[in-house]
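Thread title: Can someone regenerate the structure for this chain?

I was given the following input by a collaborator and told the matching structure tokens would be attached. They weren't. Posting the sequence so someone can regenerate them.
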Amino acid sequence: MFKDLNLTEISDQNSANVKNALMKQYTAKWKNDIMTIPKLRTYRLLKSEFYSEEYIVKLKSRSKRSDIFKIRSGTLPINIETGRWKHLPVEQLCPFCPCVETETHLICECSHYGKIRSITCDKLNITADDRLNYQALFIKLVNEHTTETANLLQKILKQRQSETCK
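Best answer:
Regenerated them for you:
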């Protein structure tokens, strides 16, 4: 890779060339990884370009930032993920309904959390029609409303924990 850069002396321009070449190479690997690694199924819904996410700076609470990261990266401890840890079939069902418990299901679809979700969607002026397109709603909540989504997620996880550990 460096042979193509014509580096005969160290200069600011050469440093910029090296930095640009490394960034280009890393970005290409990143794009390939998000498209080919099955674990990144949720991440590829939310992101198609390589850049730093606003929520990293916007969310001051470490636990909220961590929850948003986990939902984005597919590492939230819900049944689709915990089943993978246990080498169970991918389609692990929600403990409250006969649906596969994915991140989208947890935040946007599961009727068990409908009341909590409605409060958040009302606050954000999300229409009833927009609430029915679960994937679009998930993308909107996680990408555009991270503070509210982090609050929603923490309420859902708290309720889920109290009801599944009885």
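Residues 35 and 44 are 7 Å apart (CA to CA).
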